[in-house]
Each structure stands twice: as C-alpha cells, then as structure tokens.
Amino acid sequence: MAKPRQPSRQLRRPVASAQSAPVAPRPTTSVTAETSAEPASTPELPPQAEDYLEHLQFERRLSPNTIDNYRRDLVDLVRFSQTRVVRELDKLDSQDIRRYLASAHARGMTPRALARMLSGWRGYFKFALRQGVGQINPCDGVHAPKAEKRLPRTLSPEEAIRLVSFDADDAAAQRDRAALELIYSCGLRISELTGLNLDSIDFHSREIRVLGKGSKTRIIPVGEPALAAVQRWLGARAAMKVVDTRALFVGAQGKRLSASVLQARIKQWAQRQGLEVNVHPHMLRHSFASHVLQSSQNLRAVQEMMGHASIASTQVYTHLDFQHLAKVYDSAHPRAKKK
After folding, report:
1. Global confidence as pTM
2. Is position 328 within any domain?
3. Residues paired with 250 in a beta bridge
4. Catalytic-residue membership of 285
C-alpha cells in the first residue's frame, strides 16, 4: 500500500487542534511504573509504530485528539516494555499485556480508558504483523475490565428549551444562542459545531452539512428557531473584524471559536437560566437524540442524524425512552399506583 507523501516528521510532534473536542486529562504518574527506577524521559517509538500513526492519520483519517491518545498509549507500552526482559514491543506476550492492564487498573485507570488503550494496541500489533514485524498479536484474547453501563444524562424538553431561549443583547450572546440552538436542533458534537464554516448551512433547503468522526460527512435537517438564531448571529458577525473568514463561529479576536471557550459559555448560560444540573455540550446532544426518539420512535433516523457507525450506540437512548414511559405509567396508570 502506497504511503502518503506528507513528511512523517509532521506526525511525530504532538497533534493539537483548537477545534477538536477536549480529551479527559491523563494521570500525571505513568501507570507503567513497576519500580521507582522508571526512566523519566519519553522513549522513542519504533518505526513501525510511527507508520501505524501515519496510517491512522492519512488513511483512517482519525481526529488529532484520537491520534494523540494512541501515541501516548504506545509510548506508555514502549516504556513498559523497557522494564521487561524482552525490552521490545514485538517481543511482548499476552501475559505482559495483562500485567500492564492490571497495574493500570490498580492505579485507578477506568475500564473505559483501559478498553480504549487495549483497542489501540490491538490495532497496532495487527498493523505490525501485516508489515512483517513480530510473530503474534499479544492483545488477542485479552479483555479490559467490564465498565459499568451508565445511561447518558439528558435535559427534559422544558429544560432544553429554557437553556436556548434567552435574550441575546450583544454579539457574543447571539453567537452563543445560535450555537446552543444548533447543538440541540441537530445533535452536534462540539467539535462538529466549532468546525462549521459559513457554507455548511443551506438556508434554502434548511439543512446543515457536518464533518463528523472519521472525516465522514452527514446532512442533518435544521429547525426554524436554529436557522433564525444563526441569521441573527451572521448579522452581528458581519460587523466584526474576522480573521478566520470561513469559520461560522468566531470569538472576540475574530478567530475560530474554540471548544473550551464554548463549553465555559454553555455552563454560564445554564446557570443564568436557572438549570440546577451540570450542563455540557454532549448533554444537549444526548437530549436531542432522546427527545427525537421519544417523538418519532425511529431509531435508524436518529442513528443517521447522530452520525453513529453502529446502531448499538444509538440503542442506549431506547433505555432513556423506556425510563420516560415508565414514569408516565407510574404516574398515570391506576394499577401502577402504590397502595
């Protein structure tokens, strides 16, 4: 398979993007340390690991944050291998992988994080075997601890409407209201919202073109309140000195709005609107999916609008819908009332 022409040294520097959704902070102490003599310096990745990261960036087209996570996970594994007798990645076996996971779990790494880490390693060793490096995939047959299944928290329809319905008396407030309306109207991820350009919205067809995970594009219908809010924001934006001229949402300096700034603004508006919950952008996305599913019962349509690769990711909202129906039943059905 032909490699892309982009120089690999571009990838070897940590990838960062102001438009990407922020990732959860990693532990400051390495989970690979089995002795106090662990080397403090960052070990160099082997060539096949750099090739794997290039494969993820240029062929799989994964997000910069995802590639950053995979790079850190591989660095941790290299550091761990240097504490073993084999001292090379392609010489590790399943027992070594299990030992690492057990150590990481004991140090407080969550099952979800361990599963992501194991998935990245499994993909790397599979890639290395195709390149003729190594004899086995040491991650085969290894499983991360089962994570407790938690249902996503959502706002009620009344709370969601209250959050997006406020008087926007300046440019920043008009921008925030347009952003909130779009997240709730279309179920956007925050990285998708901050990545929108001026030509992403078709006001005539009332649709928005979104670049989602894996650089996959999807088309989503947009509600009238969201379109009206965006139109008002565009009027305010026209009077600003804009640096990133393509960006739909910009900050006070005229540059594309960052995810961290928008997150903070959403929390502020939630407090101003009297919502007694910790509101974050993904909660609005969950609320969109739950409310659409309650109204339409069309799971496939919700899957397409959310950009889920698997229907299993969307099915979690059926549990939320059942909870809603159960509450209605308990409050309304005469046989459901406790004696």
Report:
1. 0.56
2. yes
3. 256
4. yes
